[in-house]
Each structure stands twice: as C-alpha cells, then as structure tokens.
Amino acid sequence: MTDRPAPLASSKALNIAQEVRRRIIDREWRQGDRIPDEVELAIELGVARATVNKALQLIAEEGLLERRRRAGTHVTVNPVRKAVLSIPVVREQVEQAGRTYSHRVISQRLRPVPAKVAARMDLAPGSQLIHLRTVHLADDAPFQAEDRWPNPAAVPEMLAVDFRRDNANEWLVRNAPYTRADLSFSAENANKRDVLLLDTRPGQALLVLERTTSNDMGAITHVRLAFHPGYSMSAE
Amino acid sequence: MTDRPAPLASSKALNIAQEVRRRIIDREWRQGDRIPDEVELAIELGVARATVNKALQLIAEEGLLERRRRAGTHVTVNPVRKAVLSIPVVREQVEQAGRTYSHRVISQRLRPVPAKVAARMDLAPGSQLIHLRTVHLADDAPFQAEDRWPNPAAVPEMLAVDFRRDNANEWLVRNAPYTRADLSFSAENANKRDVLLLDTRPGQALLVLERTTSNDMGAITHVRLAFHPGYSMSAE
DNA sequence: CTTCGTGATATGTCTAAACTTATTCATCGA
DNA sequence: TCGATGAATAAGTTTAGACATATCACGAAG
Considering A51, A75, A99, which residue would you say is the last residue of a domain? Predict the structure, then answer.
C-alpha cells in the first residue's frame, strides 16, 4: 500500500489559502502588514511558488490582501465586503422552490421610450422600442412584475416574435447575448400598476431590480423587475 | 530595436478568454455544445495547455462554460447571471461621495434578543446581547439607520467599549474578524423608528440590508441597515 | 438484460524554470 | 534640496512535463 501524500480534502492551493486566511484572522499578520514573499512562503510550506501565487491571488480577489509588484503583498486595511448575487431565470427560481411557473403577458406594442429609460439605454429620446409588460406567477400567485423595453435595433427579428408564447427573458438570452449588464436594487412603493399585477395594496414596499444589458453594438434591453411583497434576495 | 512579441494589451490567458467568449456570443459554439479540449485549443492558439486551462477556468467561473473531467467543456445552456456587489463601509461610502460623515448613537444597552434575530444568529432565545441603534449621516442628513446586535460571547472586551466614540462597524471589523457573512436584501415600509431616524414619512419604501456575520465560534453580530429613501445599490 | 469492472480520456493540479514588468529605493549629479 | 537614473526586487505570466482523478463507454460476466 502506497501511503497517500495527504488527506487532500481539497487542493494544496486551497489549503494554503485557508492557512493564510487563518493567519490574517488570528492576527499573526496584522492589517497593513507586509507578508512574506512568495518564495519564502513556498519554502516554508514546501510547495512551488506557482502554487503560493495561485493561493494569494485567490485571497487578493476576495479582498483580504493587496498585491503590488515589487512592493509585496499586504493585508488589506479596510477590506471592502463583496457579495456575489446569483440572479437565476425566474422560471428556474420558481421551479426550484417546488412551485409551478407560469406567466401572463399584459401588453406588447411599439412605443416611444420614456426619457429615463432612454438615458439608461443611451438612446435618442423618443426612439421607438417594444414595450412589454408581463407578470410571472408561482402556483398562480403573482411572483414578479416585469416591465421591459427590448431594442429591435439590436435584433431585428424580435419584431416578429410573439412574446405571449415565448418567454421574453429566455428568448433574449438565447438570441441576443449580451456582454455587459448594469443592475441596481432599490425599494419602491407599489404604484397602481404594481398593485394590479402583484395583487397587493398601494404603497406596499417592493424590492425592485433594474437591469440594462448591452453588447458592443449598444443597448439590448432595459427591464424593471418588481418582486412580490416580502421577497428578499440572499447572497453568500 | 527588438520587435516586441505582441501588442500585449493584456495577458495571453485573458486574450484567449476574450476569444472564447466571442465564439460563444457569435454562436460559433452553441449552447450545450462541447468545445474542443484543452490540448486542441492549445495547439490551435499556439500556447501551453496550462494557459488555455487558466482561461477556461476563468470563463467557467463566470458561468458561460461548464467543465467536467472526462466529459469535456460545454457551453452553459441557461447561464445564471452573477453580480458582484461591493458593500463599502458607510463612512467611506459617504466620504467618497464628497460629503461629510458623522453618526449618532441612539441607544446602547444589554437586552434579550428578539426571537427572529436569535434564530438568524443561531442563539438560544432570550440570550442577552448588546443592542445598539445608530444613525449615519451625510452632511447632517440621515443616510442609513442601523440596528445592531453584537454578541459579547464572541469578543468579551466589547462590553467595555463605548460605541458612542468608536464606530461599531469599524471596531468589530478590527477586533472580531469574521469568516462567514450571510446577507439579504429586502424592501420594507418605514416603521415609526425608521421615520424618526431617517426623517421620512411612515410607509415610505426603504431598501433594507440584513447581515449576520460569524466565525468558527458562532455568531458575532446581526445588523439591519435601512437606507434613506431613494437609495439604490448598483452592481457590475 | 443488467451489473460490474476496466480502460481511455479530459480536466485538475502541481512543479521547476525562465522571462517580463512595475515599482521602490538608493545613489549621484545639478 | 531636488530630481533623474538605474539596479534590485517581488509579483505576473508562461511553458513543458508529470501525475491525479472523475467519469464515460464498452465489454464481460452473471
């Protein structure tokens, strides 16, 4: 029987990263301190420098370390908290919760964009876009109200699509891939339309996600998603 | 003059990643397709396999590719959108906007935790924690209302700290590093206290961030941050 | 027909070595 | 005193090669 080299719950690089995090958290390396360089750590830990490099880069991405050529690696003084949000497709979100998904298109027609949306999409005010209003349901209860402005200039075929049959989000993901997405979260008091779509009362606080997606050619779509009351979005 | 080997706007690995993204976006590789394996790509692009590996791992993290040993690398069918939120320390957030930061501690005392908070922090109901209420100001206008439950069991010294002088968030970051943070966003209608602290009207929709931080020993603190009306949080 | 190996294969990981590049620091000259 | 210059340094990147490991696919045994 060959003795296995390590328990290997995970990779060497990850073990090193964990050890480095421990030293930072346990104050062996204080905020602002310069830590030993890659060569030293490689020798101390008995691995190749490339492995130490991988581990340190990982932690630097997490924000606990700052690295600069020649200056060395330092423990970040005021680490900015980063949170990764996963924003799944509505349908999957609903189905993953074990509920039945459906959606209803309220309206679909060509309209000039409102100024605010035009600004976000970097379009000339008054441009004609498709305007689409949809409500997404979980077990026939309103889950999310969608107010979308797809840009036919991005994908001309979209003018021929009937979004009553094809889910707009999924059609766009498949037919108009984007390279950039700007999103923002806010809280809004339910307006009349929200009340109607989400079956709630006026003024109810709603979590609102606004997203603008674009590629090199320009904006593809802007969408405002209002979640049902009480919805909360988790991270990390 | 030695002719430089490449324009080298960035590294080879990043250039390869960009090229791979392009092929996915331009539909040269369709959703679900298996793409050429690392060795093939390395030969095609004239680089080492390790470089291709780095590029593909990067894109897999972004969610556009799925990789499994032996099965190969496939283009993700329904990519989950991921967004990275940066959650800066309040003080820096305010100062970065060119405004003057200040804060006022409304109350600080030992109290039994409410059931909801106890559940989040995984504590026995009725445990005694410090309860701290603070309002953060930008140019003397309310910016954020904070409702915090630090756990003295995590760092006993905190019982002796006067948070009127030391910013609680910053004291904790320095003296009680955490390894885990759970956060969630929601929208809430302003309650009476929010109205008072944020100088707004009852029912106003507020963006609320709740965060529980902990380390191996258990929960360190739970905090509810209510932002001033109209505040929005952006990502990517 | 099903189940259980077993080999082939694509990715995962690590290493040692070399080269590149940004940045600091000390030295020297104006 | 100040600024320019250049050497030294630490991280960044790439390479070729090796071995590890998960899993797919196929064939043998039941």
Answer: A75
Spatial neighbors of B122 by CB under 8 A, at least 6 apart, are B214, B218, B219
* Backbone phi and psi for residue A82, each to the nearest 5 degrees, phi listed first: -115, 140
Distance CA(B189)–CA(B206), nearest Å, equals: 6
d(CA A140, CA B47): 54
Which residues make Cβ contacts (< 8 Å) with residue B173, sequence separation at least 6? A78, A79, B89
Number of H helices, E strands in chain A: 7, 10
Q: What is the pLDDT of residues B58-116, one digit of tens each?
A: 999 999 999 999 999 999 988 888 888 988 889 989 998 999 999 999 999 999 999 99
Q: What is the distance in angstroms between the CA of the first residue and the CA of the last residue of chain B?
A: 41
Helix boundaries (H) for B99-211: 115-121, 168-175, 192-198
Residue B164's pLDDT is: 86
Which nucleotide's C1' sits nearest to the alpha carbon of A46? C15
Q: Of B215, B189, B133, B88, whose CA–CA distance to A25 is shortest?
A: B215
In a domain, B192, yes or no: yes
Q: What is the DSSP pairing of strand B141-150 with strand B218-227?
A: antiparallel
Check whether residue A163 and residue A119 sit in a common domain: yes
Number of domains into which chain B is organized: 2
Q: Is residue B17 packed enough to be buried (19+ CB in 10 Å), middle (13-18) or exposed (0-12)?
A: buried
The kind and range of the H/E element at A16 are helix A12-25
For residue A195, the SS3 value is: helix
Q: Which strand D nucleotides have any atom less than 7 A from protein CB atoms? A: 8-18, 20-24
A185 and B185: CB-CB below 8 Å?
A: yes
Domain that holds residue B124: 90-227
Helix (H) or strand (E) run with residue A11 in it: none
The C1' atom of C18 and the CA atom of B61 lie apart, in whole Å, by: 29
Choose among A21, A25, A87: nearest Cβ to B81.
A87
Alpha helix stretches (DSSP H) within chain B: 12-25, 38-45, 49-62, 90-96, 115-121, 168-175, 192-198
| A27 vs B190, more confident | B190
Give the domain CATH number at B145. Answer: 3.40.1410.10
Are A71 and A125 in a shared domain?
no
The integer distance in angstroms from the CA atom of A225 to the C1' atom of C13 is 42
